[in-house]
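Can't paste images in this forum, so I'm doing it all in text. The chain is below; anyone willing to post the predicted structure tokens underneath?
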Amino acid sequence: MTTIDLVEKYQPYLYNLALRLVYSSQDAQDLTQDVWVKILNSLDSFEKKSGFKTWAYRVMMNEFLNQKRKYTQLTFNDFENTMDNLSDEKLSSEYEEPHRQLLVHEAKVGCMMGMLLCLDREQRAILVIGEI
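Text version of the structure:
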């Protein structure tokens, strides 16, 4: 497998993992890029004792925990204030069922991501590791 094939195959996985860790798409892109630099520079040290995906996952988690960069972090009060300021959208009969289900799902995902941002980096990493 060529390097290009490797990046094409695992880029979506690593980006989605980064997005769970840092929430912001720009931060996730930066973190993913940093991880790819580490991975590509250390491909020779990959001993194939585990799958590549597992190894890349460990590189991602280590990079996230070791970076000095401050990623977006909210407090629970910030999250509460944000939720209080959202308008209530009624899921009236004007929405068809699939669209209504999608809106509910998106609201759940948004709430979960907001709550993740209230955790510090180590707590966030532990939750994401446990979830995956």
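Helices lie at 3-22, 25-41, 52-66, 76-84, 97-117, 121-131. The chain has a mean pLDDT of 79.
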